[in-house]
């Protein structure tokens, strides 16, 4: 079983560190001649960087490129005419109210309906007064981080983690400590070990950030046994949990799992979103939090945006009131299942030995590990040349590890495009392997055998930085 790395925290950019420091002691002027304001930026601004996903935008929008990169929901599967006339009716029927400022906490009717949605994942005790509507769950992440995190605080997060959360944590100048995962999700023993070590180091751990269902980017789901174990650890160590759950209703094989929040209403703050089950363009998400926290979140919202947009909140509430949204979620799940199958079948058929990947049973993503010694970031220009795009794994780690991984999204392209994309990718990996063995032969005078794919193509354990370092050592 992989373990989280041990050892004391290291400074920013140091290889092998598992605690990344967002706080910069000095503001260092950058490119003062290119940007005359460069020496005026806040320390946190210097830590901001383009995400691996946004960096790919110009490439993936070319029609000849098969993009397995972006996590865009298949909104064309929505009944667009019905949604269009529903929004039209909304403005003509409700009039000025839809175009006016609203409350900082969000529309009460929508908050009621959000409680119905959460009940599908076992959260039956939530009241609308504990819900804060946000501009997508991305704003929810930002609000929660603002409310809890000071520069230098530690946030525990899975290895790998959602890139948008890492961006928020970085701008709050938090230090992220990654916790190893495997096919069953976050490893409870690794979580406990991290907590013990953080306590010994005197670190202020503010919360665990976790995506228990159909993880972005790992594609895995926290098992029932592990959910219990994680909650028991949280209880023992008085740990706050941020449960980020945009994909939980998009399972392929079983009923939605019981949320962590359903097990503890005080220790878990729950983030939800309509981006994957309805529309990401409406930008409607929410936080469910104990009343005292909710107060702070509303204050933080008011300072940030005054209130969430009225029109899109009414649109979501009306959609939930008048449209068959549960059936629509089933339809989405069927569509994503078909795309997942196309992706896994072509990976099984075409990927060279030594490549492994996860087998998601819901959501949007497959997490792929390249054969030993290959680097997804360095391989990326070749892949783009071959007209296929993916997201290199390093974007999903706060400490620069994960070079041997990539995220493949099957949510957006049609099944045939997915098959073609995987075919192109397999060729790129093969060419890279050839190149690699040639250089190995030059370096060492021998050809090194490339590892075989595990029987059944089960995913290899997803590892945190400790094993990534082993990989770095192996290349030396
Ligand atoms: C795990 C996770 N959290 C949060 C978000 C943000 O979603 P939104 O702001 O659209 O609700 C995403 C989007 O991909 C995600 O994958």
Structure, explained:
There is one protein chain. By secondary structure, the chain is an alpha/beta fold. It has 2 domains: 54-72 and 328-475, Alpha-Beta Complex (Aspartate Aminotransferase, domain 1); 81-323, Type I PLP-dependent aspartate aminotransferase-like (Major domain) (Aspartate Aminotransferase, domain 2), CATH 3.40.640. 40% of the residues lie in helices and 13% in strands. The chain is built from 14 helices and 15 strands. It has helices spanning 43-46, 57-60, 80-94, 108-119, 136-148, 163-171, 188-201, 224-237, 291-305, 310-322, 325-350, 376-385, 415-444, 465-475; strands spanning 19-20, 66-67, 131-134, 154-159, 175-182, 185-186, 205-210, 241-244, 268-273, 285-288, 356-357, 365-369, 388-389, 391-392, 405-409. The strands form 3 sheets. Strands 1, 3, 4, 5, 6, 7, 8, 9 and 10 form a 9-stranded mixed sheet that branches. Helix 3 (80-94) crosses helix 10, helix 5 packs parallel to helix 6 (163-171) and helix 5 (136-148) packs across helix 9. The chain is globular, with a radius of gyration of 23 Å. The two termini are 24 Å apart. Residues 1-18, 21-28 and 442-476 have low confidence and may be disordered. The protein binds pyridoxal-5'-phosphate. Pyridoxal-5'-phosphate (PLP) is lined by residues 71, 136-138, 162, 164, 211, 216, 244, 246, 273, 275, 280, 285. Pyridoxal-5'-phosphate binds next to helix 5.
């Amino acid at each position: 079983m992989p373990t989280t790395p041990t050892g004391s925290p290291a400074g920013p950019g140091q290889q092998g560190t598992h605690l990344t420091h967002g706080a910069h002691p000095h503001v260092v002027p950058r490119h003062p001649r290119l940007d005359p304001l460069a020496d005026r930026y806040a320390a946190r601004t210097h830590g901001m960087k383009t995400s691996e996903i946004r960096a790919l935008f110009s490439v993936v929008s070319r029609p000849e490129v098969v993009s397995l990169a972006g996590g865009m929901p298949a909104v064309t599967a929505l009944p667009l005419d019905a949604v269009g006339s529903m929004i039209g009716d909304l403005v003509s029927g409700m009039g000025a109210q839809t175009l006016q400022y609203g409350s900082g906490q969000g529309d009460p009717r929508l908050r009621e309906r959000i409680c119905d949605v959460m009940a599908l994942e076992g959260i039956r005790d939530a009241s609308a007064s504990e819900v804060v509507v946000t501009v997508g769950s991305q704003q929810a992440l930002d609000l929660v981080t603002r409310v809890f995190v000071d520069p230098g605080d530690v946030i525990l997060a899975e290895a790998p983690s959602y890139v948008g959360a890492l961006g928020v944590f970085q701008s709050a100048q938090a230090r992220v400590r990654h916790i190893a995962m495997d096919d069953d999700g976050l490893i409870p023993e690794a979580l406990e070990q991290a907590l013990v070590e953080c306590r010994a180091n005197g670190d202020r751990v503010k919360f665990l950030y976790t995506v228990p269902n159909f993880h972005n980017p790992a594609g895995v789901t926290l098992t029932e046994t592990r959910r219990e174990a994680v909650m028991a650890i949280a209880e023992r160590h008085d740990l706050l949990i941020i449960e980020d759950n945009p994909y939980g209703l998009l399972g392929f094989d079983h009923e939605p799992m019981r949320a962590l929040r359903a097990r503890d209403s005080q220790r878990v703050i729950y983030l939800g979103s309509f981006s994957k089950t309805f529309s990401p363009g409406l930008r409607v998400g929410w936080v469910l939090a104990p009343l005292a926290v909710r107060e702070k979140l509303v204050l933080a919202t008011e300072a940030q945006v005054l209130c969430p947009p009225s029109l899109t909140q009414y649109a979501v509430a009306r959609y939930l009131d008048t449209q068959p949204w549960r059936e629509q979620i089933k339809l989405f799940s069927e569509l994503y299942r078909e795309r997942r199958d196309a992706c896994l079948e072509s990976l099984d058929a075409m990927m060279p030995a030594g490549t492994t990947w996860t087998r998601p049973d819901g959501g949007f993503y497959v997490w792929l590990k390249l054969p030993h010694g290959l680097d997804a970031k360095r391989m990326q220009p070749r892949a783009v040349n071959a007209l296929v795009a993916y997201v290199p794994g390093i974007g999903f780690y706060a400490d620069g590890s994960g070079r041997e991984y990539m995220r493949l999204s099957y949510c957006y392209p049609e099944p045939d495009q997915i098959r073609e994309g995987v075919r192109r990718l397999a060729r790129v990996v093969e060419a890279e392997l050839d190149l690699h063995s040639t250089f190995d032969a030059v370096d060492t005078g021998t050809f090194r055998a490339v590892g075989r794919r595990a029987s059944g193509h089960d995913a290899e354990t997803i590892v945190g930085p400790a094993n990534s370092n082993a990989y770095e050592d192996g290349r030396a």
